[in-house]
Specification:
Elements (H helix, E strand, L loop, with lengths): L1 E7 L6 E7 L10 E9 L2 H8 L15 E9 L9 E5 L14 E4 L5 E2 L6 H28 L7 E4 L5 H12 L3 E6 L5 H7 L3 E4 L1 H4 L10 E6 L3 H9 L1 E9 L13 H5 L3 E4 L7 H14 L2 H6 L1 E5 L3 H9 L6 E5 L3
Parallel strand pairs: 8-9, 8-11, 9-10, 11-12, 12-13, 14-15
Antiparallel strand pairs: 1-2, 3-4, 3-6, 3-15, 4-5, 5-7
Bound molecules: NADPH dihydro-nicotinamide-adenine-dinucleotide phosphate.
The site of NADPH dihydro-nicotinamide-adenine-dinucleotide phosphate has 33 residues, from helix 1, helix 2 and helix 3.
Amino acid sequence: MFQALLITQPDTGYRCELARLEDKQLPALGDVTVRVACSTLNYKDGLAITGRSPVVRSFPMVPGIDFAGSVVQSDHPRWKAGDRVLLNGYGVGETHWGGLAQMARVKGDWLVPLPDTLSEREAMAIGTAGYTAMLCVQALQRHWAEAGVLPGSGEVLVTGASGGVGSVAVSLLAGLGHTVVASTGRPEEAPYLTALGAASVIDRQTLSAPGKPLQRERWLGVVDAVGSHTLANACASTRYGGAVAACGLAQGMDLPASVAPFILRGVTLYGIDSVMAPMPRRLSAWETLARTLDRRRLASMTREIGLADAMAVAGEILAGKVRGRVVVDVNR
Ligand code: NDP
């Protein structure tokens, strides 16, 4: 038997509860069984647990888009019992039972080896949000390398900065020597963002309303977790030849923008997807996170909860009230 969050769709609507399940209930589709140590709460988990958006595609479903743990049993050539592994995405927690459980059965092809220098807890403090932040930063780095842009030669904007993606992006970019401007709707988090390495903090309202198609050139690059007018304004104020990495939709899924920044300033908009990202990109992101992310800063952005607490915190993350990252100790 193991404990898990279980989402069902009874006649009365949509329900998520703590359940005791049997190992034999684990999905047949999967060739590796993992004893989960930690999972996390990402924005998408908030949507799944509350049913706010149709993230969950089949029922019953164990939510949790990521986890870290160790292999118990494997029929996959790459994994054996005892291997430490982590997983992000691939529809886990949406179409395939996920990580907010003490056990998981998944395809071995989806698993990433847990870097030696990371504990399960640290890996999930990073989680899908942090791994996505790394994918954004790496997209910008590739762009800058080609353009010959040096760290410190201009400002880099991070939107949704107090959230999970934003907090890790601020820390990573500052660690690389960039001048990071953190955009937040929570001015009280300015000391937190400065401690993560932000050079300055701006009010997100300066970006969230409809704006002109071209604005004063300011950003060398942008990591955007917010979408909508914020992303449009970020593109409109990116410097000639600069780049924007878009990964989120916390403000909205729309993009009310013009082509002006792209055709008049050569701005590049990179779309970042973590769910189906190719394995070489994942391995590179996790290896770089393990090597470069400041552990003290990571600890400062992380809060830990137990499995049963995840349902309450799901509402908080959707309300934009969670700061940084939430690790779920599934055995607590
Ligand atoms: P969080 O909830 O931790 O952070 C989102 C942040 O966005 C909030 O903390 C808040 O920051 C800001 N925000 C919230 N509501 C609004 C609003 N109405 N207008 C402007 N800003 C707002 O979520 P995550 O960091 O985990 O994820 C961020 C986004 O990235 C989500 O949309 C998520 O779905 C997406 N995502 C995408 C992935 C991909 O593969 N493309 C993978 C992971 C996440 P502040 O208070 O500082 O303003």
